[in-house]
Structure formats: C-alpha cells, structure tokens
Amino acid sequence: MPRKFGETLAAGRVEPAKRVGYAYDVRMKHHFDLEDHDDPHPEDPRRIYWIYDILERAGCLKLMRSVSVRPVTDTQILRVHSRSYLEKLKQTELMEKSTLLEAQEEYESVTLCTASHYCARLSAGGLLGLCTEVVKGQLDSGLAIIRPPGHHACQNRAMGFCLLNNVAIAIRELQTHGLVDRVLVVDWDVHHGNGIQEAFYSDDSVLYFSLHRFEGGDFFPTGGAGDMDKVGKDRGRGFNINVPWAADGVGDGDYMYAFKRLLLPVAREYMPDLIVVACGFDAATCDPIGMCNVSPECYGAMTAMLRGVCSKVVLSLEGGYNLDAIANSALGCVKALLGIRWSAGLVPQAASFNAYATLSEAEINGVQTGKLVYEAGWLALPKWDPAVEVPECVRAQPSELGKQVVDRVAGEVGRYWQSL
User: Fold this and answer.
1) Which of 55, 95, 149, 321 has the most Cβ atoms closer than 10 angstroms to its Cβ?
2) pLDDT at 169 > cutoff 80
3) What span, in angstroms and rounded, lies between the C-alpha atoms of 266 and 262?
C-alpha cells in the first residue's frame, strides 16, 4: 500500500506534505511570433519550459503539487477587460497570417498567432487555479509558470507582450467569491505594471507595490504612470506605491533597501490575506532588456521576506528574457517557498547564465539533491543568524542613486502609512 505524505517513516523522519504548488501547461508554448525565424522573440516560448526543466532537475517538482490549468471564462475576463477588446482577441483565432500581422500593429509590442487567445486564457487560468487553492488552504504557496505575461494588459488593449491581465483577473475572481479581503501585489518585473495599476488605482482592497526602471518616463512603458507621485485616487489613495529607478544597473542592495525601508513595514501594517507577486525576472543579471543586476539569491530572499509577512504567497511569471537567468532566478524563489537554503558557494553566478547546459548537478541542485525524505519541521523558514547565515544579498548596500529614490518614495507615501 503506498505511503501517504506526512506518514512517519522511521526514527522520527517524515515524508513532507506537498504544500507548495505550481501551474504549468505545455500548451502555452503555442503562442509565438509568426515572424520569429532565426532571431527568437524576447518573449520566447521556451521561457516556461526552461523554468520547469531546472525545477525538475533540482528535484523541486517532486516536492510540489501540480495544479490543473483551465482557461478562464468570458465572465472572469470581463471583470477586468472590456467586451470590445475581448471580441477582438477572439477574432484572431480565425485570422490568416497577413491579417494577424496587421492586427498586432494596433498594439504596442504585441505578437499574435491563431493560438494566442487560447494561450492567454490558459495563462490567466493557471494563475487563478493556483491562487484559489492557496486561499482555500489546500496549498500554502506556489509558482505559476505561465505565458503570455499580463501586467501591461489594460482594460481595452494588449501591450508589451501581454494579452490578458493575469494578476488582475485572478484577484477580481477571488474577491467576487469572497475568498480574500486584502491583497498585496508586489511587482518586481523591471517594467512598470501599468495594467495592474490601472485595474486597482481607486481600490483600497489591493495594495500595489512596483519596483521598476523609469528613467524619467523614458523606459517602457513610457510616460508618467510609473512615477512615485502616482499614489492612487479616491478610496485607493495611498495604496499605489511606485519605486521608479532612475537608471539601469540597480542590484541586490537597492532591492533589499526598498524591501526593508518601504515594502516590509507597509505590508505588515496592511496585513494582506494574500500576496501575489508579478514575478518578472528581467531585472536579473544578464537580462538583455532590463540591464540590471539582481541575483537568484536576492529573488529567493525577497520571496522569503514576503512569506514572513503572509504565508500565502503566489508568484506569477511575467517578464525575463535570458533563459538561463530566469531559470536560476525561479529556482531561487521556489527554494524559498520550500524552505530550502542555498548551499554555500553554490549560488549560480552571472557567468554561469551563458552556459546553462554545462552547469553541474551540484550547482543546479544546491542543498537538496533529489532527496525526498527530510527531518520533521524542514519546511520552516530559515532563522537568519546575522553573524552567520544571512545571505550575502541581504547585507548588500544600496547604490547612492537607488537609496535616494527609495527615500523620496518614503517621503511621498509616508503620509498614508504610520509605519513610515
């Protein structure tokens, strides 16, 4: 008779329950650029497989539970998007190539094929299914390995590789059924999530916190929507916090300072029922678009810090365009969800990102190399001893320019939060 998870094995050792989930469906790879021949589009269909593959090789998927991916319905989409836009998206399923290429020109930085509409429904549905299991207590946390991404998708238009706003659709559905009251959305994609901001700008039931390259509004999406003075309106005033980096090159120290100085105090004051991370990895070292320097270790540390605020954390893949960097960064996040620490000296370095196929099993697997049996209590979050165990990224110092930006944001939103 097969053993059940949680059943005692021997000498007090237990096989852990699978309390961390993931959503993945290979069908989402069928959304692709019709003109993508010798030069792959940045939003490469391989992105989700690269993450899935490294998690499998690391032994993480054996410790996680797969969540079924079902496409979202019209009703669920229409809580965020207009009917006219949805009908346009539906029409792409019947278009010939020439017509599709014309249709995508209506939007900024968008690719379309006949499968795009269905893949977008699967992407939003994967996140919704995972979030639903987490808020119902069937899982503690999870990672949605989904595409196309969603945080730029607005009520009436596609934008920036995004067709449907996955995060907004999931949250609105959960709220409609009374499953959550307060949601914290942390958007660490290197681009401002203008679509998520638009959806919740007047809403105090969702606190939106975004860290992104801004550069005076010159970085995509251009304009002033991502500036620090955009704090929400009406009931939502104070519930929209933008950290607009002034230049490229921001790294671990800048993100850690933003978390410790801004996000963690506000998040603890807000006391969310659920944290959803718009989890783009395009601020990672070696990303060709983001041009920043956030390490896999830092992504893991940020994930662990959020779990310290609320145990219900769901990460939803957004951007990230270096396949090796997003794989290692996702691995860092999943290890934090599972409570697995990086082994000393085995945190993937930037140089490794250019040679994924040559990474040794030790570099990929870190501490837990395919083990299925752990001591009781192994899922507990690490207790970081400041003298010994604090990850190097947590000790990293912010750049002077990064510190100035974070301090200015604190001044801008401090009137709304006692913790600041």
Assistant:
1) 149
2) yes
3) 6
User: Beta strand 8-10 with 13-14: parallel, antiparallel or unpaired?
Assistant: antiparallel
Compute how many other C-beta atoms are within 10 angstroms of the C-beta atom of residue 210. 25
CA gap 278, 319 in Å, rounded: 9
CB 206 within 8 A of CB 171: yes
What's the sign of the alpha-carbon dihedral 89, 27, 170, 196? negative
Amino acid identity of residue 223, one-letter, is G
Mark whether 152 is an active-site residue. yes
Residue 13: is its pLDDT beyond 60?
no
Q: For 375-400, what is the mean pLDDT?
A: 57
Q: Which two tokens stand for residue 80?
A: 């965020």
- Confidence (pTM): 0.88
> Could you say which of 31, 81, 151, 152 is catalytic?
152
- Please, what's the b/e burial string for 20-55 (b: 16 or more CB within 10 A of its CB; e: otherwise)? bbbbbbeebbebbbbeeeeeeebbbbebbbbbbbbb
For the stretch 323-350, pLDDT in tens is: 989 999 999 999 999 987 655 444 444 4
Strand partners, 277: 186, 315
Rounded Cα–Cα distance for residues 354 and 325 (Å): 9
In the chain, where the domains are located: 44-94+118-416
CA proximity to 156, closest of 77, 231, 209: 77
Q: Which string of b and e fits 319-354 if b means at least 16 CB within 10 Å?
A: bbbbbbbbbbbbbbbbbbbbbbbbeeeebbebebbe
Burial of 98 (0-12, 13-18, 19+ CB in 10 A): exposed
Q: Which overall architecture, per CATH, does domain 44-94+118-416 show?
A: 3-Layer(aba) Sandwich (3.40)
